[in-house]
Design brief:
The complex is a heterodimer of chains A (506) and B (202).
Chain A lengths: L1 H17 L14 E3 L5 E3 L4 E8 L13 E5 L4 E6 L4 E5 L5 E5 L1 E4 L2 E4 L3 E6 L5 E5 L4 E5 L5 E5 L15 E6 L5 E5 L6 E4 L5 E5 L8 H10 L4 H6 L8 E6 L5 E5 L9 E4 L30 E3 L2 E3 L3 E6 L5 E5 L4 E5 L5 E6 L11 E7 L2 E6 L4 E7 L1 H14 L3 H14 L4 H13 L3 H13 L3 H18 L1 H19 L1 H17 L1
Antiparallel strand pairs in A: 1-2, 3-29, 4-5, 5-6, 6-7, 8-9, 10-11, 11-12, 12-13, 14-15, 15-16, 16-17, 18-19, 19-20, 21-22, 23-24, 24-25, 25-26, 27-28, 28-29
Helix pairs in contact in A: 4-5, 5-6, 6-7, 7-8
Chain B lengths: L3 H7 L1 H10 L5 H21 L14 H25 L6 H11 L1 H14 L7 H27 L3 H46 L1
Helix pairs in contact in B: 1-2, 2-7, 3-4, 3-5, 3-6, 4-5, 4-8, 5-7, 6-7, 7-8
Chain lengths: 506, 202
């Protein structure tokens, strides 16, 4: 008996020791979170985690000095780094081995040096467009380093006098039109045609209405001319970066949005923003505007600290990633402006930045360039991230039922993910049975999707009435009969009286 | 159960006349109505069906609801009494309190009914729900108007002016209240700072 107990105890101890797993996992240096439809912060697993970082010394060309831009040539799978402090352009391949370093360019047998090249763009032909900020020009060179064209300051009647041309970023569309984002220009992007002729401003922002503006408008009526001149001028906001992808749309980021809305725009050829809230957002708080980035800004003392996007990139599947310089975070959205992930931060650990300036997608990784640390951090997608992206791709193509499996996987890992709840709700709604409608209602409620809930509820109630129609009809009939009996009860007793009365008396 | 408030629902002017002349008021019933009003507000906020409810269920602040129902009611009565005394009204505070409370009844009934039936409605027929709720509010406003007219024995245009002035009075009271609050805060901070200075020097 004692032996048996001892045996049992020994075996149970051994089994319990064997089932202890030592989990080793990397804690990311930033919290994973997303915003729900109430604009509340909700924890979420990370979609991207840092895997490595690259410095100039590592790849053998000496440290970068305040690098300012990255560009990935997707046709040749090469990465161009604008090493602005060293006035050179570095080209690496997908293994991060140096292919080429452009220190000087050749123009008509003379050497051309750059001064603080802040922006870089490479067309499919392999021509390199460099925003040479220090020299106030855009230099176009081919892949051998021969200068093809220099585009100087634009001259026109619509350019204000005393305009200091300081080009920061450049992009070229498939027709060869060059778009330059210049410092201090609030009329939009400066566009040149292929020959370098100034075509006009592109994508002028509308002045976004804000409370301080209305207040100032009121006070202007009472002020003298001198006081009015000292007041803040409300001008359309200036852009901070531009990206043109395969689809030829111009994705721009706005440097400061006074009401913190529409900080990203996708402009078509007419300069109209076509990024709209997706159809799963049933109640859009800000009308047609969308609040990108972290919240609506916070007031610290007298300053408003808000998200300032400095770079934007669209990967081959259409997902939009933007880099916020204020808090060093990367936000990834889909084409319907649904927020997918937020990652990154400010700090000194891997995955955080001191001064992030540029963002690119290279071989399914996201690269972030830090000008102060002078390195490039590589972020790779996690399994959670892959699942969400797969599910969203199917969902946005309308394949709700196929997306159901991936969405359920996402929910297993993050029950706070509202997009997944809407996805599951829509998939269940398509499978028209009573139980599915009921479950769809539950998921729509979790997703805060009022339209979806209402539709599922309507179908569910139709099914319930259809099923229980017999009971409903009989019930109504019985109630009606009782009411009739009650109303005319006296008349019935009068009718019955001769029978009972006669009986009793007799 | 006093059937009198229900009589007022459909016969406002007669009802309020009887209230004033025959002193048919009942403070207990008015307090019951006020408590019901507070309860109906919370009921609507939490139990209104999901497609029509813009509130987050976790964000219920009972003190805020209390302040916006009972608080505003008390403010209204005080302000109304003050204004009407200035404008030669004949209403006593008790009459104002009771008649204002009775005027809330249609809003309470209709809101409770609307909240219950909203659970069976879809978004397409939301407009009927809004219509119903607006009807409740409008009816209460009309009752309030007739109450003011009868209690203070004013002409119609004077009643409207008085009601407007009462609202202005409420705003002034609120403003003065917050002013006093922040002044007291300054006094408190002053005394506290001096106390700290002395305490740390000893």
């Amino acid at each position: 008996m004692v032996k048996l107990t001892k045996a049992i105890i020994t075996i149970s101890i051994i089994v319990s020791l064997l089932s202890v797993q030592i989990l080793v996992y990397a804690e990311s240096s930033y919290p994973g979170y997303v915003y729900d439809s109430w604009d509340k912060v909700v924890p979420s697993p990370n979609g991207y985690l840092p895997c490595d970082y690259i410095t100039g010394k590592e790849i053998g060309i000496g440290d970068f000095k305040e690098p300012q831009d990255l560009y990935v040539d997707r046709h040749k799978n090469e990465l161009y780094i604008a090493d602005s402090g060293n006035n050179r352009i570095v080209v690496v391949n997908s293994d991060f081995k140096v292919i080429n370093v452009f220190e000087k360019f050749i123009l008509d047998d003379r050497e051309l040096a750059l001064n603080n090249p802040k922006g870089i763009f490479v067309t499919k032909e392999g021509n390199i467009y460099i925003a040479d900020q220090g020299n106030g020009r855009v230099v176009v060179a081919d892949k051998l380093g021969t200068v093809l064209k220099i585009i100087e300051k634009p001259e026109s009647d619509i350019i204000p006098d005393g305009f200091v041309y300081s080009p920061e970023k450049v992009a070229v569309d498939s027709h060869g039109i060059i778009y330059v984002q210049a410092y201090g220009v609030y009329q939009g992007l400066i566009s040149f045609n292929y020959d370098g002729k100034f075509l006009g401003y592109f994508g002028s922002n509308r002045v976004e209405l804000s409370f301080s503006q209305i207040r100032d408008l009121f006070w202007r009526k009472f002020f003298s001319k001198k006081q009015k001149e000292a007041m803040l001028r409300y001008v359309p906001v200036e852009y901070s970066n531009v990206y043109i992808g395969e689809d030829n749309f111009k994705y721009v980021t706005v440097r400061h949005s006074p009401n913190s809305l529409n900080e990203i725009k996708k402009l078509n050829n007419l300069g109209i923003n076509i990024l709209r809230a997706g159809s799963n957002v049933s109640s859009n708080k800000y009308g047609n505007s969308i609040n990108y980035g972290d919240g609506l800004g916070v007031w610290i003392g007298r300053n408003k600290v808000d998200t300032v996007f400095v770079d934007i990139n669209v990967d081959s599947e259409g997902f939009i990633s933007v880099l916020d310089a204020t808090r060093g975070r990367v936000f990834q959205y889909d084409q319907e402006s649904n927020l997918l992930f937020i990652f990154g931060g400010k700090g000194s650990q891997l995955g955080t930045f001191k001064s992030p300036v540029a963002l690119e997608t290279f071989n399914n990784e996201i690269l972030v360039l830090d000008s102060e640390k002078a390195n490039i951090t590589r972020f790779s997608v996690t399994s959670f991230g892959e699942m969400v992206r797969d599910a969203i791709k199917l969902y946005n193509d309308g394949l709700y039922e196929q997306a159901l499996g991936p969405w359920r996987e996402v929910i297993k890992r993050n029950s706070n993910y509202e997009l997944a709840c809407t996805g599951i709700g829509k998939a269940l709604y398509n499978k028209a049975t009573k139980e599915n409608y009921k479950e769809a209602m539950k998921y729509f409620r979790l997703a805060n999707n009022k339209k979806g809930y209402s539709d599922a509820f309507r179908q569910y109630s139709i099914e319930v009435v259809r099923d229980k129609f017999g009971i409903f009809a009989t019930g109504i009939l019985v109630i009606w009969l009782i009411i009739i009996l009650f109303k005319y009860r006296n008349k019935y007793f009068m009718l019955l009286k001769p029978l009972t009365g006669g009986h009793k008396n007799g | 159960m006093d059937k009198y408030p229900f009589y007022i629902l459909l016969h406002p002017f007669d009802g309020y006349n009887e209230l004033k002349c025959n002193k048919k008021w009942s403070v207990k019933v008015s307090v019951a109505i006020l408590v019901l009003w507070f309860a109906v507000r919370i009921f609507k906020r939490q139990y209104m069906a999901f497609p029509f409810n813009p509130n987050h269920p976790d964000d219920l602040n009972i003190f805020l609801v209390l302040a916006t129902t009972i608080g505003i009611f008390i403010l209204w009565v005080i302000s109304n009494w003050a204004i009407c005394t200035l404008m030669d009204g004949e209403g006593t505070p008790k009459e104002i309190w009771v008649s204002s409370a009775y005027a809330l009844l249609p809003y309470i009934i209709i809101t409770a009914f609307a909240t219950i039936i909203s659970r069976f409605m879809t978004l397409e027929i939301a407009i009927f729900l809004h219509y119903l709720q607006n009807l409740g509010v409008l009816w209460s406003v009309l009752l309030m108007f007739s109450a003011m007219h009868t209690i203070h024995q004013y002409k119609i245009n004077v009643t409207l002016i008085t009601m407007g002035l009462t609202i202005v009075g409420m705003l002034i009271v609120t403003f003065l209240g917050s002013l006093i609050f922040s002044l007291f805060q300054q006094v408190f901070i002053f005394i506290y700072t001096i106390y700290n200075e002395i305490a740390l020097r000893l």
